[in-house]
From TrEMBL:
Domain called AAA C-terminal: residue spans: 98-174
Lineage: Bacteria, Bacillati, Actinomycetota, Actinomycetes, Kitasatosporales
Keywords of this entry: ATP-binding, Nucleotide-binding
Organism this protein belongs to: Streptomyces thioluteus
InterPro entries hit by this protein: AAA_assoc_2, AAA_ATPase_RarA/MGS1/WRNIP1, DNA_pol3_clamp-load_cplx_C, MgsA_C, P-loop_NTPase
Residue ranges occupied by any MgsA AAA+ ATPase C-terminal domain in the UniProt entry: 175-340
Coiled coil: none
Protein name per UniProt: Replication-associated recombination protein A
Length: 347
C-alpha cells in the first residue's frame, strides 16, 4: 500500500495523473494502517474507495470517515435476483438458453441465495450443469436440490404455510413439546422467515400460554426479541432457540388471557358504571364539594397494606375475572389472591 501511495504521489506531482485506490475489507486494516492513508487522502494523491461489510462507524477511524462520503449498499431483493437469474438463463454471456428453470426451482434458488447474487449464479450454474449432463431441458427442483445439497422447504411466507407452521410452533409450545417446537422453529428459519415475526409470536405465547405460571417467561421473550433485532441471522437462530425451549418447558397458564377477555366482555356488554365517589380524583378545587375522594382509606396506613373498601363499580362489584391456576409460580398467586379478596370484602 505504501508503494502504491508513493507512486500515486509522484504521478500526481510530476505528471498530473489521478490515482484511484480501492481497498476491499478496510475493516481488516489496523488503526495505524488506516492512519497512514490520511496524508494521501488529504493531499489528493489518491481517490480512496473502500469497502467493508462491518459498521464503518465502529471499524473505520473517525478522521478517515469524516473525509469520506458514506454509501450504504442494501441486499438485493428477490425481484432483483429473479431478474438476474432470468437474464443469466437467456443471455449469451450466461447459459444462452441451453436450459430453462422450473418455477419451484427458481423459488428455491431465491431462498438459498439470501440476497447474494454470486451465490444465486453459482447455484444456477451448478444446477444447469447437472441438468445438461442428464439431458434434461429444464432445471427441476430435484436436480437443484441434489446439486446444491440443500432441500427445499415447503413454506410460503405469504400463504398458508406461513400461518400453519407459525400456528404449529405456538401450539407445540403450549403443549410443552420442546422437540416439535424446535422442528417448526427450524422450518421457519430455514425458509427465510423474518426473525422479528418469530420473536413477536414467542412474546405473545409467553403471556397467552404461560403468564404468571412463570413470570420470567415474558422477560425472556422480550429480551430475546431485542437481541434478535440487534444481531439478525444467522446468530439470531441461537437466541430464538433459547427462548423457544424456555417457553416450551415452562409451566403453563392462560389465566391472564382469560381474565382480560372476561373483563373486556363485561365492559363491551355495558357493565361499566360510575367510578365509586371515594376513588375519584380529589386534587382539584371543588372536588370536595362533589364528594370526590371522601371516605377513601389509604391502604399504606393499615397493617398489611390492604383496605376493605369497594374498588369496582356497582355493576361489576364482587365479580371475579382472574382465576389463577395451581401451576408453577402461579400457585403462590392463587393463595395470595384468595386472601386479598377475603380482606377486601371485610371477612
Amino acid at each position: 500500500m505504501r508503494a502504491v501511495i508513493d507512486g500515486a504521489r509522484r504521478a500526481s506531482g510530476g505528471y498530473g495523473q489521478e490515482t484511484v485506490l480501492f481497498l476491499d475489507e478496510i475493516h481488516r486494516f489496523s488503526k495505524a494502517q488506516q492512519d497512514s492513508l490520511l496524508p494521501a487522502v488529504e493531499n489528493r494523491w489518491v481517490t480512496l474507495v473502500a469497502a467493508t461489510t462491518e459498521n464503518p462507524y465502529f471499524s473505520v477511524i473517525s478522521p478517515l470517515l469524516s473525509r469520506s462520503l458514506l454509501l450504504t449498499l442494501q441486499a438485493l431483493t428477490d425481484d432483483d435476483l429473479r431478474g438476474l437469474l432470468r437474464r443469466a438463463l437467456t443471455d449469451e454471456r450466461g447459459l444462452g438458453g441451453a436450459v430453462t428453470l422450473a418455477e419451484d426451482a427458481e423459488a428455491h434458488l431465491l431462498r438459498i441465495a439470501g440476497g447474494d447474487a454470486r451465490r444465486a449464479l453459482t447455484a444456477l450454474e451448478a444446477g444447469a450443469g447437472a441438468a445438461i449432463a442428464k439431458g434434461e431441458p429444464e432445471i427441476g427442483l430435484q436436480t437443484l436440490e441434489e446439486t446444491v445439497d440443500r432441500a427445499a422447504v415447503k413454506y410460503d411466507r405469504d400463504g398458508d404455510q406461513h400461518y400453519d407452521v407459525a400456528s404449529a410452533l405456538i401450539k407445540s409450545i403450549r403443549g410443552s413439546d420442546v422437540d416439535a417446537t424446535l422442528h417448526y422453529l427450524a422450518r421457519m428459519i430455514e425458509a427465510g422467515e423474518d426473525p422479528r415475526f418469530i420473536a413477536r409470536r414467542l412474546m405473545i405465547s409467553a403471556s397467552e400460554d404461560i403468564g404468571l405460571a412463570d413470570p420470567t417467561a415474558l422477560a425472556t421473550a422480550v429480551a430475546g426479541a431485542q437481541a434478535v433485532a440487534m444481531i439478525g441471522f444467522p446468530e439470531a437462530r441461537i437466541t430464538l432457540s433459547q427462548v423457544a425451549i424456555a417457553l416450551a418447558l415452562a409451566p403453563k397458564s392462560n389465566a391472564a388471557y382469560l381474565a382480560i377477555d372476561a373483563a373486556l366482555a363485561d365492559v363491551r356488554a355495558g357493565l361499566a358504571g360510575a367510578v365509586p365517589p371515594h376513588l375519584r380524583d380529589g386534587h382539584y378545587k371543588g372536588a370536595e364539594k362533589l364528594g370526590h375522594a371522601q371516605g377513601y382509606v389509604y391502604p399504606h396506613d393499615l397493617p398489611g397494606g390492604i383496605a376493605a373498601q369497594q374498588y369496582a363499580p356497582d355493576a361489576v362489584h364482587g365479580k371475579r375475572y382472574y382465576e389463577p391456576t395451581r401451576y408453577g409460580a402461579e400457585a403462590r398467586y392463587a393463595d395470595v389472591v384468595e386472601r386479598v379478596r377475603q380482606r377486601l370484602s371485610g371477612e
